[in-house]
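User: Can you predict the 3D structure of Glucitol operon activator protein? Sequence below.
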Amino acid sequence: MSAISLIAVFAVLWIMQIGGTVWQMRHYRRVLGRISTQWQDGFAGVGNARGRIGKGIILIVVVGTDGIVREALAMRGRTIFAKFRPLAELTGTPLATLRNAPPAARDGGFSKALTQAIAQIDRLRTAGEPAPDAQDTIAALAIAA
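Assistant: Sure. Here are the predicted structure tokens for Glucitol operon activator protein:
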């Protein structure tokens, strides 16, 4: 294979990766937009963790003003085809319970993402700010990564 062919293959793969990233970010923004619209009186926290071989997790936790988890979503995987899935076992759980005794049946990445999401919620509750919109959270994730 010639050098030009090899460069062309890498260029095509790189463009495909960029397209996939854009597609996944659109999904993320749609989900966060729905959450921001549906739960206007609560707080949303987002946490993320990368796996050792590329498999990671993004966790969104929505808490009401009463400190009870209203909704929790997790997106985990290695590909652009990963989607947010609801975590029904966290819904209805007091935030204090998650802070003091996170679910034990999860991996280290989940615990790290949950800790980050709870810390973000705590900062928002302390500051008395409304739930972040999609752009604020995307900027926070970009800084954290």
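The beta strands are 43-49, 56-63, 69-77, 85-86. The chain has a mean pLDDT of 81.
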